[in-house]
């Protein structure tokens, strides 16, 4: 183990990984690097978590973000030396946060979409149904989705086909009686409901017709039920389950490991 970087296919497994986040300045620093390595390691202004495992770059990234970390970025020679010593002691390669992407001028091929572990792929999009049983407000639900995966947010439904897919998943999981948030909220500029990703509301599944604008306020959000998929207005402060949806992004072509 020399600390050199090697490019590998991001889907390759067999790697540990290093997670990183900013240090909590309210706590006294610790500097214990004895074996076995502690759960959290502090260096300069960041906390690190070195995890040995058998994961791809994608799954390593997801696991870091689920714990409010990110895959490590190496910014200078001192940082490089620090990480080399840590990885050296484990005797195995570990993923870092460096990756390449398709140039913006090239079209993205949908077959390259890779969903993180536990996410379900439908078309060019990935969905996570684990939070259906959670109980969070609308804004807290959005925060949770963003931490789960890059470019992820609360479920939006753009077509009848997508609505049927969501219902089938909920029925398969035995969650048809759950009520979940939809990623739609009130736009004060035009006094209307809009999707949180900016998409127009071309498809809807209201019980009869779109709600009366007089019943829609800044604290109004939208929910759907697993039993029938019908949409209803709800207060954004209610605590409900939700589904996370990540839009299609170019998957990294090459990722780097620290050896």
From TrEMBL:
Domain C-type lectin: 43-126, 122-245
InterPro entries: C-type_lectin-like, C-type_lectin-like/link_sf, C-type_lectin/snaclec_domain, CTDL_fold
Name of this chain's protein: C-type lectin domain-containing protein
Species of the source: Takifugu bimaculatus
């Amino acid at each position: 183990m020399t600390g050199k970087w090697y490019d590998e296919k991001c889907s390759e497994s067999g790697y540990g990984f290093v997670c990183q986040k900013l240090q909590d300045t309210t706590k006294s620093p610790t500097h214990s690097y004895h074996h076995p390595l502690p759960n959290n390691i502090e260096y300069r202004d960041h906390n690190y978590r070195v995890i040995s495992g058998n994961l791809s770059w994608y799954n390593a990234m997801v696991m870091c973000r689920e714990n409010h970390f990110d895959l490590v970025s190496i910014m200078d020679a001192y940082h490089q030396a620090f990480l080399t010593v840590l990885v050296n002691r484990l005797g195995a390669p570990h993923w870092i946060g460096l990756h390449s992407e398709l140039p913006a001028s090239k079209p993205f091929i949908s077959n390259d979409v890779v969903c993180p572990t536990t996410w379900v792929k439908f078309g060019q999009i990935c969905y996570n149904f684990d939070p259906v049983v959670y109980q969070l407000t609308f804004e807290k639900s959005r925060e949770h989705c963003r931490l789960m995966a890059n470019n992820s947010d609360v479920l939006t439904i753009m077509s009848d086909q997508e609505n049927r897919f969501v219902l089938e998943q909920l029925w398969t999981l035995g969650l048809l009686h759950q009520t979940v948030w939809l990623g739609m909220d009130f736009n004060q500029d035009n006094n209307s409901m809009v999707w949180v990703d900016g998409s127009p509301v071309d498809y809807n599944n209201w019980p009869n017709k779109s709600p009366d604008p007089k019943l829609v306020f800044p604290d109004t959000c939208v929910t759907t039920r697993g039993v029938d998929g019908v949409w209803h207005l709800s207060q954004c402060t209610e605590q409900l389950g939700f589904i996370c949806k990540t839009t299609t992004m170019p998957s990294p072509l090459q990722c780097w490991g620290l050896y």
